[in-house]
Amino acid sequence: MSAALDLPPEPSRDHTLDACFLGPYGENDTLLEKLLVEFLRDHVYWRRNFHPEDPPAIATSAASHPDYLAFESRMRRELHQLSAALKKSVPFHSPRYIGHMASDLLLPGLAAQMLTLPYNPNNVSEDAAPVTVDLEVQAGLQLARMLGYPHDPARPDCAFGHLTSGGTVANYQALRLALALKAFPVALRAAQVPDLVLPEDDWSAFNLSPAASIALLEQWQHWLAALAPPVRAQWRAWVEAERIEQRGLAGFFAAHPQLRLPRVLAPITAHYSWSKGVKLLGLGRDNLELLPTRDMRLDADALAERLHRLARAREPVLLCVAVLGGTEYGTIDPVHEVLKAREVSRAQGLDFAVHVDAAWGGYLATVFRREDGSLRPREEVAADYTHFPAPHVHAAFAALGDTDSVTVDPHKLGYLPYGSGAFVCRDHRAMALLAERADYVFHGATPADYLARYRSLGQYIPEGSKPGATAAAVYVTHKVLPLDHAHFGRLPRATLQAAEAFHARARQCADELAGCVHVLVPFAPDSNLVCLALNPHGNRDVATATAFVRALHDELRCDVHQPLQVKEFFGSVTSLRPDVLGQAQTRRILDALGLDAHTLDGGEDHLLILRHTLMNPYLIDHENGISYIDRYFDHLARRLRALAAAR
Ligand SMILES: *Cc1c(COP(=O)(O)O)cnc(C)c1O
């Protein structure tokens, strides 16, 4: 057992977070129960007050009819079985769970979602969601503010964000929007629209900056508006006929032999949703180019060099992805350097969109944001931590406002239920290119007013029908905990501090186990994911080390055949692939672990390592003076000794 912690004096404790979650023990059960009962009753009153003159359609005596009772008992039986089965669920809420990107749920969001469910709004359009569709658009603006995008709908270039089922679909939306924006100037040229200043050839039309494409789109809309209705319809149809959305990739590129399918550039650490995205869009995986990393972060020099060569070869680029919080190692790509590389490339005639995949790390931006929306300098942020934020981490977050679009997952570091990702673009005007017409759902001309326009949400998003309850959860959470360092930011702060404590404890563990098991944090964490590489002392073979880690991980993961309580802790694994790490880093890590690099030569071989997501807010339990991090390492040391001895 760990000794009690040396706790900071009581006044520094943060009691505002005490009401945030149901809690590991269900401490806030009465709070949640009160909220649920109150709002369920409220919903029933709403039904009764709709047309109180309508008599009840279900007889008051119905509840004693045998058929009613039989139905009720069947329902109860199934629900009891479900409830019993769910006890085998993963205990995400527990500070003993440090596996994947999930934790406890924020009460304001959980309550808002449960409260909204019986109203069942469908955010496809305002006809089916008069209230929650606005909340979704507002949630997009809240996220835009957190990221440093323009977020005042009165501004013509205001950002726009909407929710998706998750980061995967948000990333897909980024690809769709970038392609629409890139190909549109080419369509204007093909339709030979007069009076507009169009690029002189297809290559330059395909390489306008996102801002220049948006400006051209605006000019086209103004030009169109000035025409008489029949001529306007004719011109619209002519341009429409040339658009990539109309012609398809095959037709569009056949019509423009000067152009080739554009590539998507992403670091090799990028999430597999990018592979799904290029397949879905029809670009194919051949056009997803994975760039090398340096210490698991996108190598900006390699990117610059690649862009230079692509510009010379006239190979277009659709989008460059920077990852803000890698799924496997939590590393932060140098967003600022990607933007710089684009500046250079722009001067060489090669332009593209910059998208930040912040599905994991997006909410970390709250730590960098003041209440007035301005950016906190690095020294101010750093006062709360031992190492965080590294200069490149601060620079990456500071640069977010200059990117074109961002993916953020409220269902990850937003602590909200699944089914909640978000796509945010810097300038909403580009969205007009994604608009779909379905007259039975959307009617009338596109309103000029920002909020009114996006009430036809379904026109712009990849999905159709979608839950308004999710939007309510995200919006209410951001209202209760505004997305700045003094409010929401307290949560990521706790997790970043936990990650620093974890990292320090890992080094101590390495000393304690010297001569028994090599323990190594393969690279200093940028955020709140920390990995551990392990190898029993004396072993030189990578496959043996991997088998050792796999045996350990079998103890650290869910097993439906065993009672949950048998498990002490939950962790996850990932692998160190030489193709991702590069030769020098692979060599450094293998040497430190006492492994022989020659044993890697199997092609498929890679080294399995433990991965820990430190997002639970109660990892350090101040109430009882317990550190679950210390307890985890005590447990780990015991198991490592036993597994090493059993070899
Ligand atoms: C989780 C994640 C995704 C995918 O998001 P889902 O919500 O699982 O669809 C994409 N990119 C990154 C960096 C992620 O961490």
Automatic annotation (TrEMBL):
Keywords: Lyase, Pyridoxal phosphate. It holds the Pfam family tyr_de_CO2_C. Gene3D superfamilies: Type I PLP-dependent aspartate aminotransferase-like (Major domain) (3.40.640.10). Its cofactor is pyridoxal 5'-phosphate. The keyword Transmembrane does not apply. Residues 521-632 form the L-tyrosine decarboxylase C-terminal domain. InterPro entries: GrpII_AminoAcid_Decarb, PyrdxlP-dep_de-COase, PyrdxlP-dep_Trfase, PyrdxlP-dep_Trfase_major, TyrDC_C. It comes from the Bacteria. PANTHER family: PTHR42735, PYRIDOXAL PHOSPHATE-DEPENDENT DECARBOXYLASE FAMILY PROTEIN. This is L-tyrosine decarboxylase C-terminal domain-containing protein.
